[in-house]
Amino acid sequence: MMIRNDLLDPSALSVHISELLVATAESSDPGIDRAVTTVLRLLREQLRMDVVFVSEFADGQRVFRFVDSAPGAPTVPVGGADPLEESYCQRVVDGRLAELVQDAAKVPGLPPTPFPVGGHLSTPIRLPDGSVYGTLCCFSLAPSRHLRDRDLVNLRHCAQLVARKVNVAQARGREPTWD
Predict the structure, then answer these.
(1) Full set of structural domains in the chain with CATH
(2) What Gene3D superfamilies has UniProt attached to this entry (predicted)?
(3) Residues 7-65 pLDDT 10s
(4) Whole-angstrom Cα distance, residue 92 to residue 84?
């Protein structure tokens, strides 16, 4: 599957996400898997966020399965984990934190993080059986007053792509790859 260069245009990214949702409806192949990973990176760039990641919830931990960071942004180690209950991700899934936050510093009661979090977008990754695999999140170090509901819609569509990728891999008895 070919990724077009015009994806930084918000409407073009939405179209490509829709095309991938159709393409991944019943199967997966390495080209589509790479396209999903590329779309996640492009989403981070379009939203002007510093980090995008896919987390898995496993045994009370939030495990980072895919991470893409802007140059100079803090790195979150793939395979790294921390307590789920102390994460923004869990708060989003259980409704204690909105999926779209323009300035996390203004939200009372959030757990401390190893680096400042300004703008934050997060949505659950729901598998076809209704279970929550984890979350798709992106954040910036500074407030992101430019974030809008359409950005959350794109994030949710990307989470559907990730859910399909995870579901296909699990059906084949494998972990998803993030090449």
Answers:
(1) 5-171 (3.30.450.40)
(2) 3.30.450.40
(3) 445 556 655 555 554 454 445 455 556 777 888 899 999 999 999 999 999 999 999 99
(4) 11
